[in-house]
């Protein structure tokens, strides 16, 4: 029987890579003077790219439950990066970026691009493109 090598598994590799990238990104964000997390930044980017939306839409786009999204939005609102506008229904709020939130998206996007470029520097441009395509194929397969 072939010996199973856990550290060669796709789950181990993707989880470890993700964790290390998160740590590097968090350090890069801290160097900007902000204590915003990569997870909070992702919400800001989604809102920036997609426009105003409600909590349910954000949860669906991020593959997270509504409670997790609410906690993230609470932190972002406290930091004055998002604003919740009351909708027709008292349970429905539209979330949008504040001016400060739009500025932070630009700052964090630059920091994120630097971090990812550093990580992918071991690949040729074609290899990096192929890796991205393969990871998207895997993601679409498991959704």
CATH architecture: Orthogonal Bundle
Instruction: Catalogue the unreliable spans.
Output: none
Please report the first level of CATH classification, the CATH class: Mainly Alpha
CATH superfamily: Winged helix-like DNA-binding domain superfamily/Winged helix DNA-binding domain
Protein name: DNA-binding transcriptional regulator, MarR family
Organism: Ulvibacter litoralis
Domain HTH marR-type: 7-140
GO biological process, one term: response to stress
Which helices and strands occur, and which strands form pairs?
Blueprint: H1 10-30, H2 38-50, E1 53-54, H3 55-62, H4 66-78, E2 82-86, E3 93-97, H5 99-119, H6 125-142
Antiparallel strand pairs: 1-3, 2-3
Organism: Ulvibacter litoralis
Domain HTH marR-type: 7-140
Pfam family, one: MarR
